[in-house]
Amino acid sequence: MASLQPVRGTHDLLPEENRVQDHIAETARAIGELYGYHRMTTPIFEFTDVFARTLGDTSDVVTKEMYTFEDRGGEKITLRPENTAGIARAYISNGMQQMSPVKVCYYGPMFRYERPQKGRQRQFHQIGVELLGVEQVAGDIEVIAYGAHILKSLGLWDNITLELNTLGDPESRAAYRNVLVDYFKGHFDKLSEDSRNRLDKNPLRILDSKDEGDRELVANAPLFAEYLNEHSQTFFKQLTDGLGDIGINYQLNPRLVRGLDYYCHTCFEFVTSTLGAQGTVMAGGRYDGLVSTMGGPQTAGVGWAAGVERLAMMVGTGPAAVRPVALIPMGDAAESRCRSLAQQLREAGIAVELGYAGNMKKRMKRADKANAKMAVIIGDDELAKGVAMVRDLDAGEQREVAIDSLIGVIGER
């Protein structure tokens, strides 16, 4: 019988890799507290309609990538492919409009059936932020600043570029949509099959097509900026002025879009050239129509999400594991005493490596493997005197310490 392997597109996060991801998630959470954002966790699966209604029935996620199944109660359930829809659903079902503005961040696994590749798995992890109930451009500036702060704290900022575009208000979007449909209908026979299917329902998605033929047509398509009304132009100027106030540079990318109608105004991505062709590490925008699309009250929203696996590839290694103290008991009486001592040390916040068996040589070897900073050796002679031999494994120095004083001595080190 063949040995069992993880499902294609999934992988085990071993301790070293887990430390990197935990570092990223904890950095995002801690920085969020500085901006007033607090972590919120939604279920890993939702009713399928939560995503089908919000992501659009022509999107790749809905048509090709969602993990959907019928549970034993006959309900249609989907593993979450992203978390914004879940946060919006929670906003409605928990009556959170009474708490406006709602400022939350999140971290957790997402699921999409797509071709696995470097930094992109079928089960992957995201950090993200959502700000609900703020119509003013100050919300967009704050959310972008929060994302930039994380990237700076992770030491990635020098390899990051903020790309920015505006999708205008609904009036501007409708005007541009009509012009775009007319343009692509004039080149209908050259469009890919996916783009033909999107032309009437979701034409802006064509601007984001990866098909080479589509990209040639997109290069000559009308630009959104030419159809912005005065309100949309003012909003975007306030955004760019605000980013200037806090020293965040950006590049305009007029082809940066979000295909669904509930997106408006701000659209942005933090991108890098260090990950190859798939260079987006954090992406977001304003989605004032999302909550109402889901049956809730009209609610402004803006946020972003970032793939933790991709960030981890850039970060490289996480913080080093805590270096423990190795207790080395010699004899049955010392074994019993060290068991009690290990518990005392751990409850005092000191990591302890206590081997399960073996002579002194084997236990010292295990201490070295655990990268212990010191060894505490206790045998019958030491017990009789109420002391332990404390060996600094970096300096190679050894001294005698009263057992009752160990917690204080080790805590100083």
From TrEMBL:
Database matches in SUPFAM superfamilies: Class II aaRS ABD-related (SSF52954), Class II aaRS and biotin synthetases (SSF55681)
UniProtKB keywords: Aminoacyl-tRNA synthetase, ATP-binding, Cytoplasm, Ligase, Nucleotide-binding, Protein biosynthesis
Gene that this sequence comes from: hisS
NCBIfam families to which the protein is assigned, alphabetical: hisS
SUBUNIT field: Homodimer.
Record's keyword annotation contains ATP-binding: yes
GO terms for biological process, alphabetical: histidyl-tRNA aminoacylation
Gene Ontology CC terms: cytoplasm
Lineage top rank: taxon: Bacteria
Enzyme Commission designation: 6.1.1.21
PROSITE patterns named among the record's database cross-references: AA_TRNA_LIGASE_II (PS50862)
Protein name: Histidine--tRNA ligase
Organism: Thalassospira mesophila
